[in-house]
Amino acid sequence: MVAQGGVISTSSCFLSLPRHCRPSSTKPPRLALVAMSDDPIREWILSEGKATKIIRISPVGGGCINLASRYDTDAGSFFVKTNRSIGPSMFEGEALGLGAMYETRSIRVPRPYKVGALPTGGSYIIMEFIEFGVSRGNQPVLGRKLAEMHKVAKSKKGFGFDVDNTIGSTPQMNTWTSDWIEFYAKHRLGYQLKLARDQYGDSTIYEKGQRLIKNVGPLFENVVIEPCLLHGDLWSGNVNSDKDGEPVILDPACYYGHNEAEFGMSWCAGFGGAFYNAYFEVMPKQPGFEKRRDLYMLYHYLNHYNLFGSGYRSSAMSIIDDYLRMLKA
């Protein structure tokens, strides 16, 4: 996750763990003197990007997985992320998600331009550079525009996405599935629980989580669930505003799912009452929303446990235990 516009995002949702990401270096990048054909980023900017010269390349801080840079040119600015160890598939998933959200013409996202492989290994993505404003956006406007995206962007294929992608750096499986409960149980909670067992030997959380998965049906009684396009990783670091104060969302982990799953990162997104009121004016609240809210948070707590360690285990276990008591499972 990385910020654009030179803004470094911070959030209290992350614990102060040694393994947590640190802001990327603010030292200027060294510009290698290479032929244009050896630098596909420059090559694209100076051809399809319609620039005739690159004025400067500046680092953009805030990244913990990828390096980010701003390319200023005589044709405008571009935002570029690179990863020296991961192939193009990660950025291809991001580009497809950004493209899908961009096409809804609802909430502003950076327009993706190009994904490719680096000659020395790794990959890159070039996208629109958005100059951020001074605030994180108007909460009611954010709620309304997010709901508009959920309302207009539906899938006839069911729940999932055309490609697998990542949530942070964790693989996210998006195999098309006709039933939401099955999809969420297998490709979201089930995958994370198995990862915790394999990575930490945590058989307790795995076994209790499996019991929960098998008993979640009552939480969805009398609920109409449509496959809506979700950003998928909507926390405060991925929400900002442009210079006009319009909300901008970035760094997605998109898939088509139950719209309520979008609020799974609400524990560190800062959504208030004004946000939810505006959202539910467009997408009416379904029966039992409050009972399902923690179920969707659980996926992200498990992912943080798997990414950053045991500091997040107790939150995940508490949610599982509460649901097992509620469902008498």
TrEMBL record:
Recorded family membership: Belongs to the fructosamine kinase family.
Uppermost EC category: transferase
Compartments it resides in: Plastid, Chloroplast
Transmembrane segments: none
Any one annotated GO CC term: chloroplast
Pfam families linked: Fructosamin_kin
GO molecular function, one term: protein-ribulosamine 3-kinase activity
Function: Initiates a process leading to the deglycation of proteins. Phosphorylates low-molecular-mass and protein-bound erythrulosamines and ribulosamines, but not fructosamines or psicosamines, on the third carbon of the sugar moiety. Protein-bound erythrulosamine 3-phosphates and ribulosamine 3-phosphates are unstable and decompose under physiological conditions.
Family annotation (InterPro entries): Fructo-/Ketosamine-3-kinase, Kinase-like_dom_sf
Position of the signal peptide: none
EC number(s) per entry: 2.7.1.172
Keywords: ATP-binding, Chloroplast, Kinase, Nucleotide-binding, Plastid, Transferase
Catalytic activity: N(6)-D-ribulosyl-L-lysyl-[protein] + ATP = N(6)-(3-O-phospho-D-ribulosyl)-L-lysyl-[protein] + ADP + H(+); N(6)-(D-erythrulosyl)-L-lysyl-[protein] + ATP = N(6)-(3-O-phospho-D-erythrulosyl)-L-lysyl-[protein] + ADP + H(+)
Protein's name according to its UniProt entry: Protein-ribulosamine 3-kinase, chloroplastic
